[in-house]
Structures are given as structure tokens and as C-alpha cells.
Design brief:
Structural class: alpha+beta
Number of helices: 8
Largest sheet: 3 strands, mixed
Number of strands: 8
Strand content: 5-15%
Radius of gyration: 48 Å
Number of domains: 3
């Protein structure tokens, strides 16, 4: 036997020992490291400096593997096992559980995997990998959990390819816009038990709204009814906020219009009584000051300005209507007293 033949045989025996150990899940057959192999060869050549000096070249051969043990390991940890009515190859990996791979077919045969798990004749647990398409997979030893993984993934695919219908949006231009109730729709069937898969549509607040022209609301679909209800609740609250703001803006606009009308009345009163000598200097000064008032901008200040202006107009018109009595002196004194009173208020 030549040295090269011995080297090839030793490599084959070491490789076979490693494979059997991986199948058994434990180190039953010796596999030498490089350093251990060098020490073993040095011992066998006994100081020989060349091949010719080795007394028995076959002493360099590693011992044969225990054939009885090797056959038992191969028998109890086979290359193929029967699963789902077919032979499935078992892949053995050093330091890891053996694994088998099956495809997720249209018949969903993975549903028939035994819930108690898959074991080899030796009793070793087998990791099951279910391939989903070309790139995705689910794996595990706990078969019930594995089935849930596959079910969720395949159901999700149905969800992703489902065309979500639109939901009517609230018309903010109407008098009383409302957020519609949740909408239910079926988007597929569960791959595990063929039960209907339901989606829950809701009008929700638009999280991407940036410009004033963007819609306040969008339609969204959810597989969880609780999530859909929460989003709808946020939309209801937002709609009420929008309606309050709209009412406030309308009331503010009404106050601004009313204030302009009142200012016109003040101007009219001033023009009407400025030429009457019996009205008194104080009244004219009061009206003149009021007609140049700065009209406030804020809601509360506008309401206060309108209230005070209305009161002034009412008192002036009431006093002016009684000016036909007794004497010019009395009337002028009353108007001057009114002017002083309003002057004190303005301070």
C-alpha cells in the first residue's frame, strides 16, 4: 500500500466518523485534530526519516470504525424518513438538531404534521422547516407553534394582496358631519381551518397631513377590531375638534362683522348730532373718540368692545330722544354727565 493510498483512506475514515457522530448527536467515533494526527503519525514512524525507513507502512492506517456501532447509528438515524406520505431527506449538522425541509404546497399538507413532533428512530428530535415561496420559511421543533407561524405568514400574504376598498369620508362642508361606523369585509380564508378572514375598515386621522389642502381623514383597514375601534375613536375626537374650531371661526367672523356695523352706527350718531348745539361738547367728544376706536382682534376683546359700544349707543339714543324737554340747559347738562360717565369708564 502506498502512502497516498493510506492518506486517502485515513481521510475517508475520519470523514465517516464525523458524519456518524453528527447523526448520533454525540461523539461515538474518534475524530483526530491536526495536532493529534501529527502526534499519532510521529509515534507510528518511530523516528524514521523517510518512507523506506518505516518498517511497516500499514501501521500508518487509522483503525477501522466499529462496524456494528456504525450500522446501528445509520439505522437509527437514517438519511430519509417518511413524512406526509413521502420520503424526506434528513440533513445532519454537527452540534445542531437534524432537520428536514418540506414545501408549503397549495394543499397545505404541512397542516398534517404531527403535533407531538418529528423524531428519528433513535429518538432524536428533528427540526422541521416549511419553505414558503423561494426565499421565506418557518422552522421549529414545536409543531403547533410552527403551524401558527406558517398560518400567520400565509394569511398575511392574502392580506397583502387584497385590494382594500374605500370608505366614505365625512363631508366637512355639511352642517353635521359624522365619522361612519366600522366596516367589515372578508379578505380571504384561513389556511389552517378555512374560516373566513375578516378585515375591519375605519376612518382614521391622516398621519401624513402637512398642507392645509390635505385631507384630515383617510380610510384604513385592520385585522384587529380593537385597533380599528381605537383609530376610529381618535377620528371622532379629531372631528369634534375641527367642528369646535369651525364654530369658533364662524363666531369670530360674526363678531367682526357686528363690530364693523356698530362702528358705522357710531359714525352715524356723530354725524347726526355734531351740528346740534344742544347736545353738549362732552357727548360729541365721547362719540368722536369712539368712532376712532381700534377694533380688537381676539374673541374675548371683541365681545367686550361690542358690549360697551352697544351700551353707549343705547344710552346716547335714549338721551337724544328726550332732548325735546324742558330746557336746553338741563338737556346739555345731562348729556355732559353721560359723557363724563363714559369717559370714566374708558379710563
Amino acid at each position: 500500500m502506498k502512502v497516498f493510498d493510506i492518506i486517502a483512506m485515513n481521510k475517508s475514515r475520519q470523514r465517516r466518523a464525523g458524519e456518524l457522530n453528527a447523526r448520533a448527536g454525540q461523539k461515538l467515533f474518534p475524530v483526530l485534530t491536526r495536532a493529534e494526527m501529527e502526534d499519532w503519525v510521529s509515534e507510528k514512524i518511530a523516528g524514521a526519516r523517510s518512507v523506506r525507513e518505516i518498517s511497516n507502512i500499514e501501521n500508518l492506517c487509522l483503525p477501522e470504525l466499529d462496524q456494528v456501532l456504525a450500522e446501528m447509528v445509520s439505522r437509527e438515524n437514517p438519511t430519509f424518513i417518511r413524512m406526509l406520505g413521502q420520503a424526506v431527506e434528513v440533513e445532519y449538522r454537527e452540534g445542531l438538531l437534524p432537520k428536514v425541509t418540506i414545501m408549503s404546497d397549495t394543499a397545505n399538507s404541512w397542516r398534517m404534521l404531527p403535533d407531538e413532533g418529528v423524531q428519528l428512530p433513535s429518538g432524536r428530535d428533528v427540526e422541521v422547516i416549511v419553505k414558503i415561496g423561494y426565499y421565506d420559511s418557518a422552522s421549529g421543533v414545536d409543531i403547533p407553534k410552527l403551524k401558527v407561524q406558517v398560518r400567520n405568514y400565509l394569511n398575511r400574504i392574502q392580506w397583502d394582496f387584497w385590494s382594500k376598498p374605500g370608505i366614505p369620508m365625512p363631508d366637512l362642508a355639511t352642517t353635521n358631519p359624522t365619522i361612519p361606523e366600522l366596516v367589515n369585509a372578508q379578505y380571504g380564508k384561513c389556511v389552517m381551518d378555512d374560516s373566513p378572514l375578516l378585515a375591519y375598515g375605519a376612518v382614521t386621522v391622516n398621519p401624513s397631513r402637512y398642507y392645509g389642502s390635505d385631507s384630515w381623514f383617510i380610510s384604513t383597514w385592520h385585522t384587529n377590531v380593537d385597533v380599528a375601534n381605537v383609530n376610529r375613536t381618535y377620528a371622532v375626537a379629531k372631528l369634534e375638534e375641527i367642528r369646535r374650531a369651525a364654530r369658533y371661526e364662524q363666531e369670530l367672523l360674526n363678531l367682526q362683522q357686528e363690530s364693523r356695523h356698530l362702528q358705522v352706527r357710531v359714525l352715524d350718531l356723530y354725524e347726526r348730532y355734531r351740528s346740534r348745539t344742544d347736545c353738549g361738547v362732552g357727548l360729541m367728544a365721547m362719540l368722536n373718540s369712539k368712532r376712532y376706536d381700534y377694533i380688537p382682534v381676539t374673541y374675548s376683546e371683541l365681545r367686550a368692545w361690542i358690549s360697551s359700544t352697544k351700551k353707549l349707543i343705547a344710552e346716547v339714543e335714549e338721551l337724544a330722544s328726550t332732548k325735546t324737554t324742558p330746557s336746553q340747559e338741563t338737556s346739555s347738562s345731562s348729556l355732559d354727565a353721560l359723557a363724563q360717565k363714559w369717559g370714566a369708564r374708558r379710563k
